[in-house]
Amino acid sequence: MEVKTIASFECGIIEKEYQLVGQSITANFPKGFPDAAIKVQMDFERRMDEIANSKSKQVLFSPYMSNGIFATYFASLEVDELNEIPDGMMGLELPLMKYAKICCSNRTIDQGYSKLFAWMGENGYKQNQFNDSCPIEIFYLENGAKEEVVEILIPIH
């Protein structure tokens, strides 16, 4: 009998833009992670009901930026418009971008990154590291689940 896993590791390309509202944390990188990411996500989950115009409270978007010394990591929801931003949160508008994408889980995220970067190399894609883009982790939340679906998006050119 075959055991099914939620980490399919299927790679592909999508083109998407995002409007997000959420909170962020900045910490030493890599020493402060994943603890800093977990902290901001848990803090944000307690406040996500404050975002009135979210598309779904079951999909957590975590764009991030890192320079190898420190990283800023977000916990946010996708919104229809950036017109209602609760105190202590910020709105992010990520422009239309082409992303390499992989589906994994919160337990296999390290494997997901390794497989996605290998796939990108095999297919001639390079990460876009310019100011108009950033990687995104998308978590599909399930109450009480120990393992959840995660998509990793890496901007490419």
Automatic annotation (TrEMBL):
Residues 28-156 form the Integron-associated effector binding protein domain. Gene3D superfamilies: Regulatory factor, effector binding domain. It comes from the Bacteria. SUPFAM superfamilies: Probable bacterial effector-binding domain (SSF55136). InterPro entries: Cass2 (IPR029441), Reg_factor_effector_dom_sf (IPR011256). This is Effector binding domain-containing protein. It comes from Sporosarcina thermotolerans. The lineage of its organism: Bacteria, Bacillati, Bacillota, Bacilli, Bacillales.
